[in-house]
Amino acid sequence: MMTPSVRSLVLRVHDRTAVGHKAGQYLQAIVPTPRGLPFRRSYSIASAPDPSTPERFELAVTRVEGGPTSNALHTIQPGALIEIEGPEGTFVRRPEDRDQPTLFVATGTGLAPIRAMLTEEVRGLDGPPLVLLFGCRTPADVLWADELHQWERLCRRFRLHVTLSRASPEWAGLVGYVQRHVRGLAESLPRARAYVCGVSAMVDEVVRVLEREAGLTRESLRYEVYD
Questions:
Q1: Cα Rg for the chain, rounded, in angstroms?
Q2: What pLDDT, on a 0 to 100 scale, did the predictor assign at position 210?
Q3: Which tens digit of pLDDT belongs to each residue from 99-114?
Q4: Model-level pTM?
Q5: Which of 16, 93, 116, 169 is deepest in the core (most CB within 10 A)?
Q6: Domain spanning 6-88, CATH architecture
């Protein structure tokens, strides 16, 4: 468990063939449930391709009340088998974007594909700025918190901004939804590209702010929704 509601699952392709994904892609998990019916659900791959273990990958699964697939994955035991299809998806880093500053915006498990992209990016200590704006409810909901802070310490071009919608008085960071802060961050990154992932209402509003208020062109925006 990474947070009270999100479980990390590390899986391995049974015949040890490579997953073959690009950072940012997703796959279909076909999961048996207690009633015996398999359910299909899309999950972003939260890990970058690793040449040393190409058959392994990570998922971040939010437990949804009454959700058969998420509940099955939250109770699945080590060694269990599930079927997967994929990888699929076009929410990946474009080669031409790597030479420009990039603003990443995520909420909840929308961080999963962006985490995969950033895992590759922070290996290069030099280059254009990489800024992550991550929206959560409370500090307990910040996924991969230790890893994100380590990246900020070790990679001088990476900056992390966490904003909380249910912040306590002791919280010293940003407060409110990501929509409140995205314009200022975008305007601090000339010629920026933006990658946005989360629920559709957030993505729609962030894209609107970036286009109409921060002046980014539609061609500079990449986004994916998961609801």
A1: 18
A2: 97
A3: 999 999 999 999 999 9
A4: 0.95
A5: 116
A6: Beta Barrel (2.40)
